[in-house]
Design goal:
Chain lengths: 319, 343
């Protein structure tokens, strides 16, 4: 199994190199220069020319790329033009916010989705199953942002149960109060996100369990005289979790990626909102850093999925 | 040969299995009567859809009770299986009745080691310790002809060939020395050389355990090679039943005769094979009355058939449904003198 993991990690290295070159070249291909907007418009073009020269922006692209990579390895992703803060610091603050929200959403998603999918499959074709399926179809057919806006309107403004924006109340001080305040800010977006996230899991698990229930190996187990309750425990459940386990790797990617919709509607200062604003303000250093980070997270998610799969499915293992 | 009644440990009496289709029940198996004795292989033959697998699953009690209606009686060593609840049935499944399935590629759980899958049946029916179970697994794997049992026990199904997997399924079926083994097309998914090996394994096991085997197949070659007695099924009914010799040497029912004639033989390889006209009726279109095979031999006059065909004993427990066999002839052969078969 370690061989599989090692092989996958080794494959990731060239993938990352290619990704970083693409991201860098795309950033370079964007029109304009980093200085024209940030200094006095009456400044002498020669001065910009000078700045470009001392920042090495006239060097050939591979030399610039190399400098960028060296900085990258020193943990330096440059300064944000909009916030006038190192990009690394920005990502750290926003990343933490996103992480809390996403973790909360993910735990809720699985805590609701797994039992619900199993429940529906167990009662296949009956009223209980139909109700769960109606829920999944209805949720799937409403656009996510509509639900977010409705949720914020009902529970935030009308009922005033939850705060409607931000990640923490400005008046909260002390560890207990700040923690409670943070939690209060993620409950509503987390719940609404989970409401949507469960749909995938419920449908996946439901169809997997139903497939397994009618599979030949379950029939074999029944002909061994194994009670159905034990067949669910030993045969059906584990086999049905395979695609969910594979899926989990990707959803961990989302932990740091953040949901642009949720963060925008709730004005929640996370990675998604940072990315959206960076695009609006042409904050090139932030965009480059985030695209690279997202790419890296995606590769990590795939790797994680593969590792999880190779643990649970002997057919994927290399022995 | 006269058998004592004690040998008859399974008797299926007037069993019908009906499936619910669009809210209505249709018979897939109708009024089947069969006996199985120790030390014998009873083959059930018939084409796809004739109800032979349905009958096997009925004996095993594996049908969904909400989708099927089963009537009759299955007397297994004094217990009527059809009266058992799920818990009671589980005492028979695996312990007293073992089942071998058609497709060895999908009949094993892909995520469990061979050893665990064989041990599972012992966990539910014996009080053996883990150590004893392991020893039994190795013994079983030897019995079904696996070369390196210790290694195979530790492997996963995907690491084994189809033939090996079918041997594992057999090992599971015989792990608790059942009295009855139901083999539902055990060789269909395998190639011919492996087929012969698997049939050998089945025969050896039967001799050793004094089990009775119900062998379900559409392959008359397999039947000729292994079976002691044969029941021929058509459209959910048994149409002819007798010893293998009776069925192969003196087939009576038009369906049996047609089946045998449509089997390629070494001496007729240049002739065109005989083809039975028409198709098996679907469950919904099954004729309610009359001989179900009559539409496929339209040249036989209706008067030759019984209105309600029953089984007739024509001597030595050779049973044939309907009286039409007396007047049956193949259309390409001249009809011989009537009544020559009523000796």
């Amino acid at each position: 199994m370690w061989k599989t993991i090692l092989r996958r990690v080794l494959i990731m290295i060239p993938e990352l190199v290619i990704l970083s070159i693409l991201v860098f070249l795309l950033a370079k291909a964007m029109p304009g220069d980093p200085f024209t907007g940030s200094i006095n418009p009456k400044a002498d073009p020669a001065q910009i020319h000078h700045l470009m020269e001392i920042h090495g922006l006239y060097d050939p692209w591979y030399q610039q790329y190399w400098n960028w990579v060296v900085h990258l390895f020193h943990g330096d992703l440059g300064m944000s033009y909009e916030y006038q803060e190192p990009v690394v610091d920005l990502i750290q603050q926003r990343g933490a916010n996103t992480l809390w929200l996403a973790l909360f959403t993910m735990v809720l998603t699985y805590a609701i989705g797994l039992p619900l999918g199993l429940y529906a499959a167990h009662h296949e074709g009956k009223l209980q199953d139909t109700l769960v399926r109606v829920y999944t179809y209805v949720t799937m057919s409403i656009p996510f942002f509509v639900v977010l806006v409705l949720g914020i309107w009902i529970f935030g403004y009308a009922l005033n149960w939850f705060p409607t924006s931000g990640s923490i109340s400005a008046t909260a001080t002390g560890f207990g109060a700040t923690t409670m305040s943070r939690l209060g800010h993620i409950i509503l977006p987390g719940l609404l996100g989970a409401l949507f996230g469960t749909v995938n899991i419920v449908q996946y698990l439901r169809s997997e369990v139903i497939d397994a229930k009618h599979s030949d190996y379950v029939r074999t187990a029944r002909s061994k005289g194994v009670p159905m309750k034990d067949i669910y425990r030993h045969h059906i459940f584990r086999n049905s979790l395979l695609p969910i386990a594979a899926f989990a790797g990707y959803s961990i990617t989302g932990l740091l990626g953040g949901s642009i919709f949720t963060e925008m509607v709730f004005s929640y200062p996370g990675m998604g909102l940072l990315f959206l604003n960076a695009i609006n303000f042409r904050d090139y250093t932030v965009i480059t850093a985030l695209v690279l980070l997202y790419g890296f997270l995606n590769l990590m998610g795939t790797l994680l999925s593969d590792i999880v799969l190779s643990i649970v499915d002997p057919r994927v293992r290399i022995e | 040969m006269v058998e004592t009644n004690n040998d008859q440990f399974l008797s299926i009496k007037d069993v019908s299995t009906a499936f619910k289709i669009n809210g209505q029940y249709y018979d897939a198996v109708s009024n089947v009567n069969l006996e199985v004795k120790h030390d014998e292989i009873l083959a059930i033959v018939g084409e796809s859809g004739c109800g032979k697998s349905t009958l096997a699953t009925t004996i095993m009690g594996l049908h969904d009770p909400e989708e099927t209606k089963i009537s009759g009686e299955i007397d297994f060593e004094g217990t009527d299986l059809l009266k058992l609840d799920e818990k009671g049935y589980n005492k028979f499944r695996g312990a007293k009745i073992g089942m071998i399935f058609q497709d060895p590629l999908s009949a094993l759980n892909p995520l469990k080691r061979i050893e665990d899958q064989i041990q599972e049946v012992m966990i539910y029916h014996t009080k053996m310790t883990e150590k004893q179970r392991h020893a039994r697994v190795i013994e079983l794997l030897n019995e079904v002809g696996i070369d390196d049992p210790e290694r195979t026990a530790h492997q996963f199904p995907h690491q084994l060939s189809g033939g090996m997997r079918q041997r594992i399924i057999i090992a599971i079926a015989i792990a608790c020395k059942p009295d009855l083994i139901i083999a539902d097309e055990p060789t269909t998914a395998l190639d011919v050389t492996i087929q012969a090996q698997i049939l050998d394994v089945l025969r050896d096991i039967q001799k050793e355990n004094h089990a009775g085997i119900i062998l379900i197949t559409h392959d008359l070659g397999v039947v000729a090679e292994t079976a002691d007695r044969v029941a021929v099924m058509y459209a959910g009914q048994i149409v002819e039943q007798g010893t293998a010799a009776q069925i192969f040497n003196e087939p009576k029912h038009p369906y049996t005769r047609s089946l045998l004639r449509s089997m390629p033989q070494r001496d007729n390889e240049n002739d065109e094979l005989y083809v039975i006209q028409g198709m098996v009726p679907s469950l919904q279109k099954m004729p309610k009355e009359g001989d179900r095979f009559a539409p496929r031999i339209p040249w036989i006059p209706a008067s030759a058939h019984e209105a309600r065909p029953t089984m007739h004993d024509i001597g030595d427990n050779h049973l044939v449904r309907c009286t039409c066999y007396k007047d049956f002839y193949f259309p390409d052969q001249v009809k011989e003198g009537a009544g020559h078969e009523s000796n």
